[in-house]
Amino acid sequence: MNTDTTIAKNICVADEKASYDAACKRLLSEKIILAWIMKNCLEEYRDCDVEEIAEKYIEGTPQVGEVAVAPDESNRVSMIQGAGNEDTSLTEETVTYDIRFLATAPVSGELIRLMINIEVQNDFYPGYPLIKRGIYYCSWMISAQYGTEFTNSHYENIKKVYSIWICMNPPKSRENSITRYYIAEENLVGSVKERKSDYDLMAAVMICLGKEGDSGTDLLKLLNVLLSTETGSQDKCQILEADFHIRMTQTLESEVSLMCNLSKSVEEKGIEKGRQEGIIAMVSALKDLQIADSIILNKIQEKFHLAEETAKMYL
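^ thats the sequence. predicted structure below, dont judge the formating
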C-alpha cells in the first residue's frame, strides 16, 4: 500500500473542505444575508426591514476569521473600535469566531450596541452539547468587554451579545427548527420587576437546517437554498432574487458560484477518497486470508478496472 499517496489524497480533501468552509462563512457574512438572520432570530430587529438592517444597523465590515484581538492592555483600543474574530487571554486557549461583527439596534428611540457571533457547524454532536459551547461563547464575549466597553465597576455599560449557530447536518428531530436560549426573570417569592435591559444580556440561537421542501420559515428556506449542495449556483442566484428579493451583486454572485464549485469538488473528492479506502480495506481483508499478491492484483484490476500501476499502489 502506498501510504504517502493516501496521505496526500486525504490532505487534498481536507484542503478543499477548508476552502469550502471558508467560502460558506464569507457568503454568510454578506450584510444582506446577516440581515435576514438578524430579523428572524433577534427580537431587536423583528419590526425592521431586511434592507434597513443591512444598510443602517450592521457596523462596518463583518470579520471572517481574520483578526486576532487579545483583551489585555496592549489591545484595548482595537477592541473598542471593532470586534475581533479571536479572543485570547494569558490563561485561556484561543477562541476563534467564524463571523463576528457589531450592530446597533433601535430600542425606545435610542440605539444600543450588540456584539453578534455567527458560527457554521457541520457536526451537531462534536463530543459535547453544542448549546453549551454557544453559551460559553456568549459568556466569553461579555467577559472580553472588560477594559473595552466598560472599566472598573461600570457594569451598566455591558453590551448584549448573541451567539448564532447554523447547523447544517442536525439530527432528524431538530431539522428545520430555530431555538433561542436566553436569560429570563422568574419571581420565586414576591412580584418584583427589574428592567429587562439589565439582565437580558446574552442569547444563543440554534438554527438547524433540513430539506429545502420542508422549510417552515423564510429564513430556513433561504439558508437551505443558500447552503444546499444539490442546487447549482445559477439556480441559487435566481431563487435569491425572485423569492427573497436579494439583489445579486457581482461579489455575491461570485461567492455563491465559488461555494458551489468547492462543494462539488469536495463531494467528488470525498467519493474518490471513500472508493480508495474501500479498495484498501478489501486488500487488507484479502491479505488476512493469505491470498497471494498476484491474485490480489488481478482481483483489484478486474473489479475496479484499474491500470496495473494504480493497483500496485495498494499492495
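Strands lie at 58-63, 68-69, 86-87, 95-96, 99-107, 110-121, 160-167, 177-182, 202-208.
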